[in-house]
Design goal:
It is a single chain. By secondary structure, this protein is mainly alpha-helical. The protein has one domain. Helix content is about 70%, strand content about 10%. It is built from 5 helices and 3 strands, in the order H-H-H-H-H-E-E-E. It has helices at about 1-30, 30-45, 50-60, 70-95, 100-135, and strands spanning about 140-145, 150-155, 155-160. The chain has a 3-stranded antiparallel sheet, with helices on one face. Helix 4 (about 70-95) runs antiparallel to helix 5 (about 100-135). The protein starts with a helix and ends in a 12-residue tail after the last strand.
Protein backbone atom coordinates (compact mmCIF):
# COMPACT_ATOMS: atom_id res chain seq x y z
CA UNK A 1 0.00 0.00 0.00
CA UNK A 2 2.81 2.41 0.89
CA UNK A 3 4.60 1.64 -2.38
CA UNK A 4 1.45 2.35 -4.40
CA UNK A 5 0.84 5.60 -2.52
CA UNK A 6 4.47 6.64 -3.05
CA UNK A 7 4.20 5.89 -6.77
CA UNK A 8 0.95 7.87 -7.05
CA UNK A 9 2.46 10.88 -5.28
CA UNK A 10 5.55 10.70 -7.52
CA UNK A 11 3.42 10.59 -10.69
CA UNK A 12 1.20 13.44 -9.47
CA UNK A 13 4.34 15.45 -8.70
CA UNK A 14 5.70 14.88 -12.21
CA UNK A 15 2.37 15.95 -13.72
CA UNK A 16 2.43 19.15 -11.64
CA UNK A 17 6.08 19.86 -12.51
CA UNK A 18 5.65 20.92 -16.14
CA UNK A 19 3.07 23.70 -15.59
CA UNK A 20 4.84 24.77 -12.39
CA UNK A 21 8.15 25.20 -14.22
CA UNK A 22 6.52 27.14 -17.04
CA UNK A 23 5.13 29.51 -14.40
CA UNK A 24 8.51 29.75 -12.64
CA UNK A 25 10.38 30.14 -15.90
CA UNK A 26 8.29 32.98 -17.30
CA UNK A 27 7.27 34.86 -14.15
CA UNK A 28 9.82 34.21 -11.44
CA UNK A 29 12.91 32.92 -13.26
CA UNK A 30 16.14 33.80 -11.52
CA UNK A 31 18.96 35.44 -13.47
CA UNK A 32 21.33 32.55 -12.63
CA UNK A 33 18.80 29.98 -13.86
CA UNK A 34 18.20 31.87 -17.12
CA UNK A 35 21.92 32.51 -17.70
CA UNK A 36 22.85 28.88 -17.07
CA UNK A 37 20.12 27.60 -19.38
CA UNK A 38 21.12 29.98 -22.18
CA UNK A 39 24.80 29.07 -21.79
CA UNK A 40 23.99 25.34 -22.01
CA UNK A 41 21.66 25.87 -24.97
CA UNK A 42 24.34 27.93 -26.75
CA UNK A 43 27.07 25.38 -26.02
CA UNK A 44 24.97 22.43 -27.16
CA UNK A 45 23.15 24.44 -29.84
CA UNK A 46 19.87 22.97 -28.58
CA UNK A 47 16.59 24.76 -27.92
CA UNK A 48 13.70 22.56 -26.88
CA UNK A 49 14.75 19.47 -24.95
CA UNK A 50 17.79 21.12 -23.37
CA UNK A 51 17.10 19.87 -19.81
CA UNK A 52 16.75 16.25 -20.94
CA UNK A 53 19.94 16.45 -23.04
CA UNK A 54 21.90 18.27 -20.32
CA UNK A 55 20.97 15.64 -17.74
CA UNK A 56 21.78 12.75 -20.10
CA UNK A 57 25.13 14.33 -20.93
CA UNK A 58 26.02 14.73 -17.25
CA UNK A 59 24.97 11.14 -16.52
CA UNK A 60 27.01 9.77 -19.46
CA UNK A 61 30.06 11.79 -18.44
CA UNK A 62 29.84 10.41 -14.88
CA UNK A 63 29.20 13.87 -13.44
CA UNK A 64 25.67 13.27 -12.10
CA UNK A 65 25.47 10.20 -9.86
CA UNK A 66 26.33 11.12 -6.28
CA UNK A 67 26.94 14.76 -7.16
CA UNK A 68 25.43 17.85 -5.58
CA UNK A 69 23.30 18.16 -8.71
CA UNK A 70 21.69 14.77 -8.10
CA UNK A 71 21.22 15.44 -4.37
CA UNK A 72 19.49 18.73 -5.10
CA UNK A 73 17.12 17.01 -7.52
CA UNK A 74 16.31 14.17 -5.12
CA UNK A 75 15.86 16.61 -2.22
CA UNK A 76 13.50 18.73 -4.30
CA UNK A 77 11.47 15.67 -5.27
CA UNK A 78 11.34 14.65 -1.59
CA UNK A 79 9.95 18.06 -0.60
CA UNK A 80 7.48 17.88 -3.47
CA UNK A 81 6.30 14.44 -2.38
CA UNK A 82 5.43 15.76 1.10
CA UNK A 83 3.24 18.68 -0.05
CA UNK A 84 0.06 16.70 -0.72
CA UNK A 85 0.26 14.39 2.34
CA UNK A 86 0.98 17.30 4.70
CA UNK A 87 -1.87 19.30 3.20
CA UNK A 88 -4.28 16.34 3.33
CA UNK A 89 -3.40 15.62 6.96
CA UNK A 90 -3.83 19.29 7.80
CA UNK A 91 -7.22 19.42 6.13
CA UNK A 92 -8.34 16.20 7.88
CA UNK A 93 -7.22 17.55 11.26
CA UNK A 94 -9.08 20.81 10.69
CA UNK A 95 -12.26 18.92 9.75
CA UNK A 96 -11.96 16.86 12.95
CA UNK A 97 -11.62 19.99 15.05
CA UNK A 98 -7.87 19.93 15.73
CA UNK A 99 -7.20 23.49 14.61
CA UNK A 100 -3.67 23.82 16.02
CA UNK A 101 -2.24 20.69 14.44
CA UNK A 102 -4.35 21.19 11.31
CA UNK A 103 -2.99 24.67 10.70
CA UNK A 104 0.53 23.43 11.45
CA UNK A 105 0.28 20.57 8.93
CA UNK A 106 -1.27 22.83 6.28
CA UNK A 107 1.47 25.39 6.88
CA UNK A 108 4.14 22.74 6.43
CA UNK A 109 2.51 21.67 3.14
CA UNK A 110 2.39 25.24 1.87
CA UNK A 111 5.92 26.09 3.02
CA UNK A 112 7.33 23.03 1.28
CA UNK A 113 6.35 24.49 -2.12
CA UNK A 114 8.87 27.38 -2.16
CA UNK A 115 11.51 25.05 -0.69
CA UNK A 116 10.90 22.62 -3.53
CA UNK A 117 10.96 25.34 -6.19
CA UNK A 118 14.16 26.89 -4.84
CA UNK A 119 16.03 23.58 -4.60
CA UNK A 120 14.81 22.46 -8.03
CA UNK A 121 15.89 25.79 -9.58
CA UNK A 122 19.37 25.39 -8.06
CA UNK A 123 19.51 21.81 -9.37
CA UNK A 124 18.59 22.91 -12.90
CA UNK A 125 21.03 25.85 -12.90
CA UNK A 126 23.89 23.61 -11.68
CA UNK A 127 22.96 20.94 -14.23
CA UNK A 128 23.01 23.45 -17.09
CA UNK A 129 26.33 24.92 -15.91
CA UNK A 130 27.91 21.46 -15.78
CA UNK A 131 26.50 20.52 -19.22
CA UNK A 132 27.84 23.76 -20.73
CA UNK A 133 31.33 22.87 -19.46
CA UNK A 134 31.05 19.29 -20.73
CA UNK A 135 29.94 20.52 -24.17
CA UNK A 136 33.37 22.11 -24.65
CA UNK A 137 35.28 18.87 -23.99
CA UNK A 138 36.63 16.69 -26.80
CA UNK A 139 34.49 13.76 -25.68
CA UNK A 140 31.33 15.70 -26.53
CA UNK A 141 30.10 15.96 -30.10
CA UNK A 142 26.85 17.21 -31.54
CA UNK A 143 25.47 16.74 -35.03
CA UNK A 144 22.33 17.83 -36.83
CA UNK A 145 20.21 15.11 -38.37
CA UNK A 146 17.17 16.38 -40.20
CA UNK A 147 15.38 18.60 -37.74
CA UNK A 148 17.05 17.13 -34.66
CA UNK A 149 20.33 17.81 -32.90
CA UNK A 150 22.06 14.67 -31.65
CA UNK A 151 24.51 14.87 -28.74
CA UNK A 152 27.19 12.21 -28.20
CA UNK A 153 29.58 11.52 -25.34
CA UNK A 154 32.63 9.41 -26.22
CA UNK A 155 30.89 8.31 -29.41
CA UNK A 156 27.68 7.16 -27.70
CA UNK A 157 24.38 8.93 -28.32
CA UNK A 158 23.18 10.52 -25.07
CA UNK A 159 20.23 12.56 -26.26
CA UNK A 160 18.57 14.70 -28.87
CA UNK A 161 16.65 17.93 -29.00
CA UNK A 162 15.54 20.58 -31.40
CA UNK A 163 18.36 22.76 -32.70
CA UNK A 164 18.48 26.28 -31.30
CA UNK A 165 18.56 27.60 -34.87
CA UNK A 166 16.30 26.06 -37.53
CA UNK A 167 18.00 23.48 -39.69
CA UNK A 168 17.33 24.07 -43.41
CA UNK A 169 14.88 21.66 -44.96
CA UNK A 170 16.84 19.44 -47.36
CA UNK A 171 13.96 19.24 -49.82
CA UNK A 172 13.81 23.02 -50.31
CA UNK A 173 17.46 23.31 -51.34
Amino acid sequence: MVAVLTLCLYVIGDVIDKPLWKLYDFRFGSKRFETARERARDSLKIGKGSYRVAKALCVSAGKYAGSRIEWQNEGAKFFRSLVLPASAVGFALLVRGHQGFGVLALSVGVLLIPSYVSLKARHIANLYERAACLATEESCEAHDLGRSRLVFWEGELVGSGLPSKPVPDFQSQ
